[in-house]
Design the sequence.
């Protein structure tokens, strides 16, 4: 009986502590929570569409995406027909691409890492993500703002001196209730806006609330952006690390 | 006697002779000056290539240059270095680590060759350190706890480390430099704007300013808009010794400008010790040794002796590394001579024409001379000498003028700024200092005399064919 009471007290205290914490989160903690919400699940399987908008043309690519933690990812293009079957594999810091029409497996060299992925504004470097929004920045809450009808923390993140980060600083709007990245502005060292990322269409998918539409807008290019839409996503499926292999990237459908 | 007569004959019809002389003068001046400009550009290019870019001899693993494999370092570098130091003709040696990778900033990225260097010995071999743009830093002289990189002007512009920007401060300083209020008014909408590239900056400025304003203030505005952020950062990413992707932030130590866009775009200098930490290479591991020789002339000799002493390593001299340079220096003298021959050939026809007129006009006189006993050889010589005098007077005047003009322009150089992009893309400077060797003038003089002789043959033969009796009777 005594142990039960102790347990109860502990639980209560923990709950209380949690409450206090929630009201007075440090900016770093907010970013960590949002980052975990975004990338935190062990594994995911998703169906996505990416629309590339350019001044004179526009095209949509559909793909399936499997991830495990931050280390492993496999992407298979499903549409349009021209690119169908092309797959990309990420294992830790390395990336490969498989092109079935020429039967070639290519390890992407650093020189290709910073080109746009499939012609989009996303660079392969964005996908490899060497830097961490939590550890490589100094965070500061600069206010609260409403964005897209949701009350957000506005957090300014200044890149640490030695961090391998190309940005000077970022400003992120994070939903207060659900800790979602709603809007991010990425600035260079001159404090000029380089890129804006907008999240919208917040939906519950497989029991989690996430923005299902992400727009990426380069600031210095006119009429140019990339839109990612998440059509379906499942979390914590049983995907083994061995799934992310070169053999599998050729086989997968 | 015949010399004197010939010389006097030249000046009997001053206008006609002067026309020919002037045309020869202009032709020779044009030819020599064009050659001097070309030659100046080539000499500057060779000088820059040897002193800023490649030095004289490179030594590396035979397979290294195929794909710059990080594993292919020089075995026993200490031993190789000591052999080099003992070789006569070798002035200085520096060792480099060479890796291909990517340079990234927030806005752009570019593929580069990362050179891990030792700044101290590097300075003895190449003088890239002297080409630092004032105000952008230095060649690893200021100590820093960060990784440092020394990069080219073009790359800096491409990565937006050097950017074009007009701010209030810039407008104020333009006002202080007496730029008209009207122009400032036109520029004011750009306050705070940062241009994506030099090109878009130029385009915008050209759009708002009139042609005259561009000419008067263009340079000033450009200078004001050009700005550099001290200690900017960029990330370099590359594969380390285990073929794993790695990278780090490097701060800009300084920016060099050698007027060769290709070199400036592709080479990033970093300190060997910084790179070593990231690549996991051993302290004495190098990919390439770069040698400066005592004299340029000993290139072939030292290359051969080093190749013998260092079996299993590739020894390449600058002629093999940049065959275009070797071709330029070897071939260009002949090319100049051919160029002059073409010009003189055109002039020769002018001289032939004039000399024919001389002969036809003086039919009676020539008949008289033969009649009173002047032999054919002397007549031929006289006409030939007249023609040589004509061409030589024009030629010497042309050479004197070109020497004067070269002397004046060589001091300040000729600025082809409006074509700078094209020139620099090919590795040639847009600011050219014309130069020509004395031996070229001797060649030209010989060529002029030959031209004079050749162009006199036909008219002289015509004169010889005259029948004295008939010639005397012509009116």
Sequence:
């Amino acid at each position: 009986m005594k142990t039960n009471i102790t347990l109860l007290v502990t639980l209560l205290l923990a709950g209380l502590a949690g409450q206090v914490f929630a009201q007075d989160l440090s900016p770093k903690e907010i970013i960590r929570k949002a980052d975990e919400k975004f990338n935190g699940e062990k594994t995911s399987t998703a169906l996505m569409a990416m629309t590339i908008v350019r001044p004179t043309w526009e095209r949509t690519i559909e793909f399936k995406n499997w991830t495990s933690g931050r280390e492993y990812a496999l992407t298979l293009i499903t549409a349009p027909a021209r690119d169908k079957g092309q797959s990309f594999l990420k294992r830790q810091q390395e990336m490969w691409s498989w092109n079935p029409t020429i039967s070639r497996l290519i390890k992407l060299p650093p020189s290709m890492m910073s080109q746009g992925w499939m012609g989009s504004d996303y660079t392969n470097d964005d996908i490899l993500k060497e830097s961490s929004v939590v550890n490589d920045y100094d965070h500061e809450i600069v206010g609260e703002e409403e964005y897209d009808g949701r009350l957000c923390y506005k957090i300014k993140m200044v890149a640490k001196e030695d961090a391998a980060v190309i940005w000077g600083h970022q400003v992120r709007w994070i939903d207060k209730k659900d800790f979602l990245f709603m809007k991010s502005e990425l600035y260079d060292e001159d404090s000029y806006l380089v890129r804006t990322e907008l999240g919208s269409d917040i939906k519950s998918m497989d029991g989690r609330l996430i923005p299902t539409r992400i727009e990426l807008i380069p600031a210095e290019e006119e009429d140019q952006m990339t839109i990612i839409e998440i059509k379906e996503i499942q979390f914590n499926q049983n995907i083994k690390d061995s799934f992310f292999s070169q053999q599998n990237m050729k086989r997968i459908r | 006697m015949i010399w004197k007569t010939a010389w006097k004959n030249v000046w009997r019809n001053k206008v006609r002779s002067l026309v020919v002389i002037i045309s020869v003068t202009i032709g020779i001046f044009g030819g020599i000056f064009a050659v001097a400009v070309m030659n100046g550009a080539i000499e500057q290019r060779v000088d820059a290539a040897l002193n800023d870019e490649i030095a004289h001899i490179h030594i590396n693993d035979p397979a290294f240059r195929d794909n710059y494999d990080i594993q292919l370092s020089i075995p026993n570098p200490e031993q190789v270095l000591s052999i080099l130091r003992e070789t006569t003709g070798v002035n200085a040696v520096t060792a480099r680590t060479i890796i291909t990778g990517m340079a990234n900033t927030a806005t752009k990225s570019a593929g580069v060759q990362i050179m891990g260097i030792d700044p101290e010995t590097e300075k003895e071999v190449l003088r890239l350190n002297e080409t630092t743009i004032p105000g952008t830093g230095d060649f690893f002289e200021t100590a820093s706890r960060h990784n440092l990189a020394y990069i080219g002007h073009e790359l800096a512009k491409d990565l937006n480390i050097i950017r074009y920007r007009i701010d209030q401060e810039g407008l104020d300083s333009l006002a202080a430099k007496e730029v008209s209020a009207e122009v400032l008014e036109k520029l004011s909408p750009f306050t705070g704007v940062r241009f994506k590239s030099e090109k878009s900056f130029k385009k915008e400025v050209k759009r708002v300013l009139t042609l005259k304003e561009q000419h008067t203030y263009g340079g000033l505005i450009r200078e004001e808009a050009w700005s550099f952020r001290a200690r900017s950062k960029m990330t370099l990413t590359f594969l380390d010794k285990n073929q794993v992707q790695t990278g780090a932030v490097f701060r800009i130590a300084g920016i060099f400008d050698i007027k060769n866009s290709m070199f400036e775009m592709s080479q990033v200098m970093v300190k060997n010790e910084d790179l070593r930490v990231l690549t996991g290479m051993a302290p004495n591991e190098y990919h390439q040794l770069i040698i400066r020789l005592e004299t340029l002339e000993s290139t072939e000799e030292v290359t051969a002796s080093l190749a013998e002493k260092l079996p299993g390593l590739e020894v390449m001299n600058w002629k093999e590394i940049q065959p275009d340079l070797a071709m330029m220096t070897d071939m260009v003298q002949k090319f100049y001579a051919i160029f002059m021959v073409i010009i003189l050939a055109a002039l020769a026809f002018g001289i032939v024409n004039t000399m024919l007129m001389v002969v036809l006009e003086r039919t009676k006189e020539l008949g008289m001379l033969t009649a009173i006993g002047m032999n054919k050889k002397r007549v031929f010589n006289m006409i030939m000498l007249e023609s040589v005098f004509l061409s030589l007077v024009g030629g010497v005047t042309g050479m004197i003028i070109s020497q004067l003009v070269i002397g004046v322009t060589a001091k300040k150089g000729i600025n082809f700024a409006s074509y700078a992009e094209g020139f620099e893309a090919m590795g040639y400077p847009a600011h050219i200092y014309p130069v020509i060797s004395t031996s070229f003038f001797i060649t030209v003089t010989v060529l002029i005399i030959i031209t004079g002789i050749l162009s006199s043959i036909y008219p002289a033969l015509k004169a010889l064919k005259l029948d004295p009796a008939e010639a005397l009777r012509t009116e």
Remarks:
- Chain A touches chain B at residues 93-94, 109-111, 113-115, 123, 125, 128, 130, 161-168, 186-190, 192, 194, 220 (CB under 8 Å).
- The two ends of chain A are 57 Å apart (CA to CA).
